[in-house]
Design goal:
The complex is a heterodimer of chains A (about 110) and B (about 110). With about 110 residues, chain A is mainly beta. Chain A is built from no helices and 11 strands. In chain A, a hairpin with a 5-residue loop joins β4 and β5. With about 110 residues, chain B is mainly β. Chain B contains no helices and 11 strands. Classes of the chains: A mainly beta (about 110), B mainly beta (about 110).
Amino acid sequence: DGGITQSPKYLFRKEGQNVTLSCEQNLNHDAMYWYRQDPGQGLRLIYYSQIVNDFQKGDIAEGYSVSREKKESFPLTVTSAQKNPTAFYLCASSPRTATYEQYFGPGTRLTVT
Amino acid sequence: GENVEQHPSTLSVQEGDSAVIKCTYSDSASNYFPWYKQELGKRPQLIIDIRSNVGEKKDQRIAVTLNKTAKHFSLHITETQPEDSAVYFCAASKTGNQFYFGTGTSLTVIP
């Protein structure tokens, strides 16, 4: 299960606060992704990044921001503008060479009250 | 954008029986179709994938079939075991950049 890590596992915040979720990988993968998982809705793409210093919005980017200053790291900030931030957040990485296989982190469960 | 639909949402089978999960996609340009298994409280893990130039792929008890004309693909699990109980997600991608996931199938294998 090593290779891609997320911290913390559980996160609690008050409404109106920004919060940053960590994602680190030592797989030397070029691409990294952030997904949101809600019950009955599968995984929805928030942001993805193909290379350092470049990232693209997914389908539900509103209220979120990311950075990709290092190949190994792709932190996600959930801002106060995100109307329903309570969810399970999954980070993934992919080599995007011979395969498109995504390797997922263990996830962070964010609860905002 | 792409729209992936997955059925059924829940599936119960007796141990030893087969299980079939079906997905449809809308974008004919999609060319990569992975299946992920997510056990309770754990991360999704790739179990099998197929590219659009292949109609079927097998890996032991698991197989995936793809019908490009009808734009649907299916996961087949034979000789099911209790450890196959999990949520299964299909996905579609055309560039390896954006992945569109189905809503998941909760499979329960009854011993």
